[in-house]
């Protein structure tokens, strides 16, 4: 059994609001090879990187609003287990297979709130136009309602679920996580509205290890097993996680 520890950051883009550094606690969690830590922030991933510069592990990965550190240049490979292997891999693999030529190097990245992106690297201007046109006209029904957006003057392609905040997307995600045999633990800070569907879907799927952090929580607290209202409580919870079987 693999433990996937999923953290949503607070409004400052850090865990524990930056008041207490959780780096040592997370490092301890990573000593157990079953634990994988995934941090999502609606700010830039640099905030997390600065808060936890010493953590180096293939099982510790995080993404932010502007792509963050989750990217790799490679010659036609699907996202590996240290990147997106655990997340919507079937939809992402279909997107890669149908849309990116095998001889094209690309980077995979992610933005906040589980949005996936691809940066194609070695195409000339003509190929860019042709390839991006193909992407724009892709049959997205095969990707369960994903939409394609072009950012930064068409040098970046963003693949985002259309129903991201409607609960359907996270329902599908949780079903896939269950199929992978993962034991899922979630800790979320602030940002009530964007994350609400995720918490409700988790609750409806029997994932009771959901944690809310902060005083500005409007969501029905019955959805969460814990409600941590201070950085100290967050640290205590991280310590508690080290005893996961």
UniProtKB/TrEMBL annotation:
One Pfam family of this chain: Trehalose_PPase
Top-level taxonomic group: Eukaryota
Transmembrane annotation, as ranges: none
UniProt-listed GO biological process terms: trehalose biosynthetic process
UniProt GO MF annotations: alpha,alpha-trehalose-phosphate synthase (UDP-forming) activity
Similarity comment: family membership: In the N-terminal section; belongs to the glycosyltransferase 20 family.
PANTHER family: BCDNA.GH08860, TREHALOSE-6-PHOSPHATE SYNTHASE
Name of the protein in question: HAD-like domain-containing protein
